[in-house]
Design goal:
Layout lengths: L1 H7 L6 E4 L5 H9 L4 E4 L35 E4 L4 E2 L12 E5 L5 E8 L3 H13 L8 H8 L21 E4 L5 E2 H7 L11 E3 L20 H9 L8 H29 L9 H25 L6 H23 L3 H19 L6 H35 L22
Parallel strand pairs: 1-2, 5-7, 8-9
Antiparallel strand pairs: 3-6, 4-9, 5-6
Helix pairs in contact: 7-9, 8-9, 8-11, 9-10, 10-11
InterPro entries: GNT1/Glycosyltrans_8, Nucleotide-diphossugar_trans
Organism: Ensete ventricosum (Abyssinian banana)
Keywords: Manganese, Membrane, Transmembrane, Transmembrane helix
Length: 414
């Protein structure tokens, strides 16, 4: 986000309020590579941790209150890291003592707000924390909504043409905090009031736009990564991705070459009564291995890579591990890979760029899932059937001490 602001040429200092928990090399990178001023502050104790609805990820969000202590500045625009700037917003520095946008009809959003620093206000806020001021969510937003309860009744901010600074508190137009959810409904922006300047992503934490899996589930994630690609790049994640890709390709080559050997080693036509318990164990192990093959690569892909790199790496990893499953359990490849093919198809359905609106997109995705479900179920049934057939032929349980070497022609007899 900081580099996107730099690229837009904003006329202001870029300041990061950092707690002592931030690693020193991160601080150095911010200072040297990004040209950011770093203000290190002690963590404010969150007095709302014992609330029943408290979410631990909000534990340190009250550190935002330190923005009021930056008295060397006349105005501060406080930002969350999940903001995506589409254009310069220097006019925000003309706003009053406190300004914020309402995403919720009744509660303003603290992903972006404007303030006039004041040690008097800062100390009063600390006093209110000590007194246990009402805070519905235990985070910075709940506290500030309680501290500025009349903001909903304040006038809308319109920057003066002469560049003068305003006084008092104001509501910011929605264009300064465009909730990505509004975009997903129509798959386009339809915010007629105010400048369409800043996108915010107040979604579930695991669907934030910097995670590779958030796209194409949430289409705007690609815009976020395009901003990062043009500024930070992905050099930090590249070595891990290349190593993973090489390992996956190696696994696929080895399992392909080793498969005939496994067949000769494991297969025996000699009949013997099956052991039901062991057969069940093998079936469960095969199905569990298929599940693991689809899940493990997801967690190995670096979380913040570009989606167009993350998804192919995940699919490659899942295919590689599935090849191990097919080799070890002597399964047909297509039924094992059916779920992976279905996932690939769902990505195409979600990424299809010509939907008229978000509702149509969801309906098409549901229709695709409805059509895929029987196919995936049939593939699992085929896997179990193949395992059962192999077990009945004693493919996995040759007799102990029995040689698997084929008999020579001279030893054959009727």
């Amino acid at each position: 986000m900081m580099r996107s602001l730099t690229r837009l040429g904003v006329d202001a200092d870029l300041v990061v309020v950092a707690s002592p928990d931030v690693p020193l090399h991160w601080v150095q990178t911010l200072k040297e590579a990004d040209g950011v001023k770093v203000v290190t502050v002690a963590n404010l104790k969150n007095p709302y941790e014992e609330q029943g609805n408290f979410n631990t990820r909000f534990k340190l969000t009250l550190n935002k209150l330190y923005a009021w202590s930056l008295v060397s500045y006349d105005r501060v625009v406080m930002l969350d890291s999940d903001n995506l700037f589409l254009q310069r917003t220097d006019e925000l520095f003309q706003c009053g003592k406190f300004c914020a946008a309402f995403i919720n009809p009744c509660i303003f959003h603290t992903g972006l707000f404007v303030l006039q620093p004041s040690m008097v206000v800062f100390k009063d806020m600390l006093h209110e924390l000590e007194m246990g001021r009402e805070n519905p969510d235990g985070a910075d937003q709940g506290f500030l909504v309680s501290y500025f309860p009349d903001l909903l009744d304040r006038p809308m901010f319109h920057p003066p043409a002469n560049g003068s600074k305003m006084d008092g508190t104001y509501r910011l137009p929605l264009g300064y905090q465009m909730d990505a959810s509004y975009y997903y409904l129509k798959l386009r922006w339809s915010v007629p009031c105010g400048p369409n300047s800043v996108i915010t992503f107040p979604s579930l934490p695991w669907l934030k736009p910097w995670y590779w899996w958030s796209w194409p589930i949430l289409p705007l994630g690609l815009q976020w990564h395009e901003q990062r690609r043009s500024s930070l790049g992905y050099a930090a994640e590249a070595p891990a991705m290349l190593i993973q890709a090489a390992i996956y390709l190696g696994i696929m080559v080895v399992t392909r070459l080793a498969r005939p050997g496994l067949l000769r080693l494991c297969y025996s036509r000699r009949s013997e009564k099956s052991i039901p318990f062991l057969h069940t164990v093998v079936k469960v192990a095969a199905l569990w291995s298929m599940f693991v093959a689809h899940v493990v690569p997801f967690f190995l892909v670096p979380r913040t890579v570009h989606p167009l790199l993350g998804w192919p790496l995940y699919l490659l990893g899942a295919a590689a591990l599935c090849s191990i499953v097919t080799g070890v359990f002597l399964l047909p490849a297509l039924p094992v890979l059916t779920l992976l093919l279905a996932i690939s198809g769902s990505l195409f359905v979600m990424a299809f760029p010509w939907y008229s609106d978000g509702v149509t997109r969801v309906l098409v995705l549901l229709a695709y899932a409805f059509c895929c479900a029987p196919v995936v179920w049939a593939s699992l049934t085929r896997v179990v059937s193949s395992l059962h057939s192999l077990l009945e032929r004693e493919a996995f349980f040759p007799r102990l001490g029995e040689s698997t070497t084929p008999l020579s022609d001279s030893s054959k007899a009727y």
